[in-house]
Write a structure and sequence with these properties.
By secondary structure, this protein is mainly β. It has a single domain, classed as TonB-dependent receptor, beta-barrel domain (Maltoporin, Chain A). Helix content is 2%, strand content 60%. It has three helices and 39 strands. The strands form six sheets. It has a 22-stranded antiparallel beta barrel. The chain has a six-stranded mixed β-sheet with strand order 2-4-7-8-5-6. A hairpin with a 2-residue loop joins strand 5 and strand 6. The protein is globular and about 70 Å long. It starts with 5 loop residues before the first helix and ends with a strand.
Amino acid sequence: MGALSLLTTSSLAANSQDSYIGNETPEEITVSGPRLQVRATGQKIVIVDYASQAVTRLDSALGSVPGVGLFRRANSFTSHPTTQGLSMRGVGANGAGRVLVTLDGIPQNDPFGGWIYWSGYQGNAVGQAVVRRGGSPGAFGAQALAGAVDLQSAPGNQISGFYGSDNSFAVNGSAAIETASGEFTLNSGYFETDGDFLLDEADRGLVDARAASEAYAIGGSYAHALADDTILTARVRAYGEDRVNGFSLAVNETDAIDTSLRLLHQPESGTAYELTVYYRERDFANVFASARDERTTERAVLDQFDVPAWGAGFLARVQSGGFEFGLDGRRMSGETNERFRNLGAGFTRQRRAGGDQWILGGYGEYAASGDWGELSATFRLDRWRTYNGERLETNIADGSLVREDTVANRADWIGSGRIGFERNLTGAITLRTAAFKSWRLPTLNEYYRPFRVVNDITEANPDLKPEALYGVELGFDYRPLNTVSASVTFFRNWLNDGVGNVTIGFGPGFFPLGGFVPSGGVLRQRANIDRTTIDGIELEGRILLDSNLELKGQYLYARSRITAFDANPALVGNRPVQTPRHSATASLYKTLDKGWWRLEARYAGGQFDDDLNTRRLDSIFTVNAGAAYEITENVQLTANVENLFNARVVSALSSTGLETMAQRRYGRVGVSANF
C-alpha cells in the first residue's frame, strides 16, 4: 500500500509560523492531506484538532481562533444557514463569508450563497482544520479573500454517539476498507435536537417555538493506486437539514450532494501534479415569518419555496522544483422562487430572481530558500463573468407582470498575488512577513436574493462590484524551548468595495426599492462600501506546565472602520457590523493515562448589529469544559459543557430592542468505539 500512504503523509514540517489547538504541538503537522502541499511562506497558520475540543460543532471549534467566526455570535445549533459564512481578522462579517472553506481541497461554500452548512460535518468526518490567516490567492483560487480554512477528513473505523441538552442526540460512524490496490472509506452521521428558544422567557409569546433541527450526512470515497506514486480518488457526499427558526412557520429545508474526482501524482522527487474536478448541487427552501398581536399570532412574510443551485469546477496544479503553475475554474448557477407581499390574506405576489457566474484563472508561483531565508511569490490572473441575471415579479391572482428586470451581463479581469518571506534571526526567533492582494466575487445570493428577518427587509443589488483586499503583515515567532513558544503579528488590511447591508430608511412607510416597511422595521440594500481599513495585532503564547499540561492563550485586536464611502459619508468612521475590536481565548489542556480534559475561556468585545452603529451588543465571556476517558483500549467516554456558567449571549438586536439569544449552556455525554 505504498501509494496509499500519500493520503496521510503529505505534510509540512512544523515551523515557527504554525500553531496547534488541541494536543501539544507534534513534530509534523499534516496540512495538505490527499493533495499537493500548499506553500505558506510568511503566513500564520493555526491547526485546530477537532477531536480534542471542549465544544460540539465544528464552527464552534474554529471559534477557538480569535477573529474566526460566523456572521453572528450564534453557532450553527441555532443560526439560520444563510448566516453561516466565516470571516477572519476583523475583515467585516457578512452572511456569505469572506473565507474559503475546503474539505480535502474541495470548495464547500454554497454555490448560491457562499455560506457553509456546518451541521453537515458530523462526528468523525473531520479530524482537523488548517486555518490560514490572511488573503490566500494561488492554489486556493479566487474567493479566499480574508483567508482559507482547509478541513481534513479523518478516515478510520469508529462508531460514536451522544445525548445532550434540549433532547439532542447524534449517531456517527466511519469505516475504512483496504483492497489489493485501493481503499474504500465510508462515513455517516445523524443529529437531532428539540432546540432552545431564541428569546428570553420575558420576551416570548404564544408563537415562539424552539429552534429545533435535524441533519444527516453520508459520504464515501474510493482511492485507487494507479502506481506507487499516483492515486485516483473518487468521492461522493450527501447532506440534508431541516430547521425551525423561532416560529412554527419559519422553517427551512436543505438537500445537497457533492461529488469529486482527483488524480494525484506525487513522487519522492521530480515533477508532481494534481487534477481535480467537482460538482455540487443544492436544493433550499425557506420561510421567514414575523410575530403579530403582541406575539400571539404569526404571519409568513416571505416564502422561498424553491431555491435550486449548482456549482462545478476544476483545479490543475503542477509542481517542479521551486515552481508551481495552476489553472482553475468554477461555474455557479442558481435562482430563488418565492412568494411575498402577504397583507394578511395570503401571499399576493411571486418572484423569480437569479443568474449565473463563472471564474476562470491561472497562477504561477516561485519559492526559493537559502542561508538568507525563504521567499515565495505568487501572481494570479482571473477572468469573471455574471450573466443571465433576471428579476421577474407577477401577481399570483391573475399572473400579470408587475416587474421585469433584465440585468446586464458583466465581465472583467482581476489580478491578485502574494509575496512572503521568512528568516531565522536567531536559533529561537523567526521573522515572517507578507503582502497580498486577494478578491471575492459577490455571490448570486448577494446579487439577486432579497430577504426579510422579522420586520427588517434587505434588498439585493445586481450592480455589486467584486471585493478586493490588500494586506501587509509582519510577525515574529519565539521558540526558545520545545515547551515554550510565543508569537506576535502586526497587520493592516484595506477592504475595497466590501459588500455591506446599508440602511435606506425606517418604517412604517412605502419605499420604491423595497415596498412597504412595517413599523419598527428597517429597509437596507446590499452595497459596495468604498473602503474599510483594519489595523490589527495577534498575540499567542503556549507553555507546557508539565509534560502533560498545556496552557495556551491567544488574543486579537482588530480596529476595523469605514474610511471612505462617497455614496453615504455619514457611515465613515463606523465599525462594520458584528466585528468586535477585542477577542481572546485561553485554555488548559491535560492529557491523562486514559484520556484528557480541557478547560477553555473565550472573550469577545462589544460589537454593533447595524451599519449605523446604534444597535450595540455587549461583550461576552464564556467558559467551555470537556473531557474524555478510556474505558477500554477501544472504547472512550466523552463529556462536555459549553457556556458552563450560562453567560448571556445576545446575537442580534432589533430596532425595537428585542434581543435574540444564542449559545445558552449546553451539555452532552457520549461514547465512541474504535474497531
